[in-house]
Write a structure and sequence with these properties.
- The protein is mostly helical.
- The chain contains five helices and three strands, in the order βααββααα.
- It has a three-stranded antiparallel beta sheet with strand order 1-3-2.
- Strand 2 and strand 3 form a beta hairpin.
- Helix 4 packs antiparallel against helix 5.
- The longest helix is centred in the C-terminal third of the chain and has 45 residues.
- The radius of gyration is 24 Å and the shape is elongated.
- The termini are far apart.
- The relative contact order is 0.08.
- It holds the Pfam family MerR_1.
- InterPro entries: DNA-bd_dom_put_sf, MerR-type_HTH_dom, MerR_fam.
- Keywords: DNA-binding.
- GO terms for molecular function: DNA binding.
- It comes from Amycolatopsis roodepoortensis.
Length: 133
């Protein structure tokens, strides 16, 4: 299957400008061209773009993504380094999740606190609107 740049952008959730930028900085190989010379993205291209999008969502810097993209062209001989990059990023993501879990715990504590305040106030005949933040 072959997709125009507009269709690849729609399917990947990336903008056309981002697709061209990723090509320019060598995160993606230049896609094949159709008979008219227009970019023709494959399903494999879309799969790689989906993976790159996930790496960006994890907070991986573009520089590290470029290293990873470059290494994949070396095949199995670069598997160890590619794995190390992903292991490092996984640690970073796990640390962020732990930090966010702490934030979530604090929010839950405060919400529970305000539930208790509301029950007390409502139990005495006051209204919720009268409670200050």
């Amino acid at each position: 299957m072959s997709y125009s740049i507009a269709e690849a952008a729609r399917r990947s959730g990336l903008s056309i400008d981002t697709l061209r930028y990723y090509e320019r900085i060598k995160l993606v190989e230049p896609p094949a061209r159709d008979a008219a010379g227009r970019r023709a993205y494959s399903d494999d291209d879309l799969g790689w773009l989906a993976f790159l999008t996930k790496l960006r969502l994890t907070g991986m810097p573009i520089k590290r993504m470029r290293e990873y993209a470059s290494l994949r062209h070396h095949g199995a001989s670069s598997a160890g380094r590619r794995k190390a990059i992903l292991v490092d990023q996984r640690k970073s993501v796990a640390d962020r999740i732990a930090e966010l879990q702490t934030c979530l715990d604090i929010l839950d504590y405060k919400i529970d606190h305000y539930d208790q305040v509301e029950r007390k106030v409502l139990g005495t005949g006051a209204t919720v609107e009268g409670i200050s933040a």
